[in-house]
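Design a sequence for this backbone.
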């Protein structure tokens, strides 16, 4: 039987949907370009996937006052003769969503794969999560599957059974959320696919007021998240296609409010393709095309209001392997952004615009530590005051222990 090698848990959480926002990305007029340059070098992916003890962080500049951070740490060690204990830490702070997850897991081998359970602690006990898992396959096998059933905010309803404080106020669920998730990876000599799907079932909470005289409020939340990718290599070319789709709906209003539930629907999806090819003199080239659609709708009393934006992005990059452990990068990105709004304006926007950027960087390896730095230079006029040349920096680090 093949077993998984310290995989990333294929699950999100309520925080990943409750903080998910579309219009907030307009605070940074080059948000998509910043997210693209915050990605770690693709060549680091195999080492991360196959390691049982690794750390990585992706960081970069969003605005003059905001710094983008994506970090992950995973550890796995024996739990007895055959079982495994794992720790997976995932942190994200950006203009799309913010969350901080620490997952403690145990996996036990069976004849039909591995069964496991995970615990996600929070200071507020009402937000603590549990999950049941089944998985089979390995990071080198032709088929790898992980199925997870998340039990979100499991201790939330302690208010109903005990005189125990949970959080600052009583926030019991009327309808409790669950989160099934599925991850499927297939690997073959010349091609590979990856599919991840997560669903946060609709939930309803009854929120107490700050005082006994304040009215109770009803809050709802649901969301979906999906990733898919296909890679294919033939005749010296490496082709890649990716897609991502996230959506969420939430509402919060006094119980029985006649003026609306303050509904907030947001969705962001994208399709992306890239091709890479080696060139003479230790050079390689990459071309990339990305289409992204994002929209957000507010209901009364904040609305009615709607925001929509479409990004059409082109990118090209040239890499030169100066030394076996040192690679130089030079590239450019162009993004045409179309923005449409109606009704009440709930967040400011720079409107329809064009963003273009040149960038250069270095990727170096020091033993088991890989380091990358990128400097981006804006090529178009900015709608705000800029001293000299408007630049943005990005930093990536990955360590395999």
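Sequence:
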């Amino acid at each position: 039987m093949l077993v998984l090698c310290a995989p990333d848990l294929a699950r999100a959480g309520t925080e990943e949907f409750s903080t998910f926002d579309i219009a907030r990305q307009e605070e940074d007029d080059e948000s998509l370009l910043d997210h693209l340059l915050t990605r770690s070098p693709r060549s680091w992916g195999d080492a991360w996937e196959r390691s049982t003890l690794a750390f990585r962080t992706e960081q970069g500049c969003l605005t003059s006052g905001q710094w983008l951070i994506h970090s992950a740490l995973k550890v796995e060690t024996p739990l007895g003769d055959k079982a495994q204990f794992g720790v997976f830490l995932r942190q994200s702070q950006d203009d799309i969503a913010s969350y901080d997850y620490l997952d403690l897991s145990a996996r036990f081998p069976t004849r039909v794969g591995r069964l496991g359970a995970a615990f996600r602690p929070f200071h507020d006990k009402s937000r603590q999560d549990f999950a049941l898992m089944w998985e089979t396959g390995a990071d080198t096998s032709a088929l790898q599957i992980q199925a997870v059933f998340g039990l979100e905010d499991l201790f939330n309803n302690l208010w109903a059974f005990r005189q125990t404080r949970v959080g600052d106020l009583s926030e019991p669920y009327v309808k409790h959320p669950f989160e099934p998730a599925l991850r499927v990876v297939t690997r073959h000599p010349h091609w590979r696919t990856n599919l991840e799907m997560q669903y946060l079932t609709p939930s309803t909470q009854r929120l107490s007021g700050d005082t006994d005289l304040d009215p109770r409020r009803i809050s709802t939340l649901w969301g979906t998240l999906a990733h898919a990718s296909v890679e294919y290599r033939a005749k010296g070319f490496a082709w890649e296609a990716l897609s991502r789709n996230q959506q969420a709906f939430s509402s919060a209003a006094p119980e029985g409010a006649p003026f609306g539930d303050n509904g907030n629907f947001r969705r962001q999806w994208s399709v992306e393709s890239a091709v890479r090819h080696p060139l003479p003199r230790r050079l390689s080239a990459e071309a990339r095309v990305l289409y992204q659609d994002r929209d957000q709708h507010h209901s009364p009393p904040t609305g009615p209001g709607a925001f929509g934006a479409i990004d059409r992005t082109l990118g090209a990059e040239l890499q030169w392997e100066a030394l076996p452990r040192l690679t130089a990068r030079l590239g450019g990105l162009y993004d045409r952004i179309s923005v449409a709004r109606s009704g009440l304006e709930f967040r400011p926007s720079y409107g329809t615009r064009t963003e273009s950027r040149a960038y250069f960087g270095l990727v170096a390896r020091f033993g088991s530590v890989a380091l990358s730095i990128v400097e981006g230079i804006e090529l178009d006029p900015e709608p705000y005051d800029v001293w000299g040349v408007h630049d943005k920096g990005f930093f990536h680090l990955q360590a395999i222990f």
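The CA atoms of residues 338 and 352 lie 5 Å apart.
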